[in-house]
Amino acid sequence: MTRTQVTSGRLPAPSGPFPRAGHTSQVLLFVLLALGLAISGLPSPLYGAYQREWGFSSLTLTVIFAAYALAALAALLVVGRLSDSIGRKPVLLTAQVMLLAGLGLFVAARSAGWLIAARALHGAAIGSIAATAGAALLDLRPAHGAVIGRLTGLVLTFGMTTGVLGGALLAQLAPDPFVTPYIVAAAAVLVTLSCTALMPESLRARTALSLRIRPRVPAQIRGPFWFAAVSTAATWSVLGLYLSLAPGLADQAVSSHSLLVGGTIAAALIGTGAVAQLITQRADALRLAIGGDLVLGIALLLSVTAVAAHSAWAIYLTAVVMGAGLGPAFNSSLRHLAAVIPAAERGQVMSAYYLAGYLSLAIPTVLAGLAATRFGLTHTYVVFGAVVAITCGTAGWLGTRLAAERPRPDTEMRPAVDDTSGK
Predict the structure, then answer these.
(1) pLDDT on residue 205
(2) From CA 119, how far away is CA 135, in angstroms rounded?
(3) What number of other Cβ atoms are within 10 A of residue 323's Cβ?
(4) Is residue 307 classed exposed, middle or buried when 0-12, 13-18 and 19+ CB atoms within 10 A define those classes?
């Protein structure tokens, strides 16, 4: 009798942004996102040391970056529909095995070719994790898209900051800089892999498996999607340029080969972005993203001036200002998009979103590498910085158009006028 009463009655819903059910899975998914982005940033401070050790060119360095982005693109073309069909868990487990394989290649690396192969594996793995974990979080809490978007942006930014700064510190202070960071990361992946194996599947309604490869954006959310895509293009282009060119520029400015120089300048950009997201997380997503795009564009122009002047302190200062715009631009545009994605198409929409991001990471980085081999780091950064600043302005313009199309709150709440009297 007691059991019947308990199972037939409804328990009160726990308070807070998320109910208690599925809380462990949510935490694990956020940890996976953070770990994936940390591993993506882990080798960035080491590339200068690899370049000096093996003597490869700036173009080869950007090919290493591009291998990551292109492999992520390839994964994103299939992983959205795949995870909508076979479930989120098999994709996440496979991606973590690929992370371990890539870390093993980094440990065994003896030439730039090994780095390209390792980054390609990691690109496919991290692209799969980003799209699939994001979709799984929305599976678990479909009514909390805005909160998930906000937390996802924070987790991704903090993860990359930890990876870049942690990689620099381990490589500079720990023994064997080309091995120790990857061993530490592999230990973390083994923990998350074990936890994922025990995690219940989040997907309930599966779609039929299809070989057609096409991320899809429903017509009703194309406005928010294109705004988020262009904002992402701007922020990820900045990340690509900074992670590939800024360490070399900073080394030139301070005349030092310390791994901490490149690591700290990248961490100044990404870390300030994370703090800015944390401070502004409750502000209106659309307006905050517009402001972030505009701040990022202005700061980029200031950064171009600092680089042209070969001023180390100005490069660091403008990195902080750029981060103050980059964090809200990335996080808030994602938060704005996550709140409107239809439940049945989360995997495909998230794939399309990250597709735009990785294209923006790959194309400018490769072009910058080609230009740097001919015109030098400084001239290349000046030109590409100006182009990305224009992209930021374009994102801000698209956002203002979306804001203008939104119904005003006073219009929505105004009662209908009764015209039946007086006629």
Answers:
(1) 65
(2) 24
(3) 28
(4) buried
Residue 36 token pair = 């994936």
Residue 25's alpha-carbon distances to 93, 129, 333, in angstroms, are 14, 14, 25
Residues 6+ positions from 16 with CB-CB distance below 8 Å: none
| Token duo for residue 226 | 């294109």
Instruction: Note the pLDDT tens digit of each residue in 85-95.
Output: 788 899 999 99
| 347 secondary structure, DSSP code | H
Selected residue with higher pLDDT from 335 and 22: 335
Quote the tokens at residue 80: 């959205």
362, 354 Cβ separation under 8 angstroms: no
| C-alpha span between 24 and 66 (Å, rounded) | 35
246-268: average pLDDT: 72
pLDDT of residue 21: 45
Structure tokens at 153: 């942006």
Per-residue pLDDT for 80 more than 80? no
The residues, any chain, with a CB within 8 Å of residue 366's CB and separated by 6 or more, are: 62, 63, 65, 66
Q: Is the pLDDT of residue 12 over 60?
A: no
Instruction: Give which of 291, 346, 402 is closest to 88, Cα–Cα.
Output: 346
pTM for this entry: 0.74
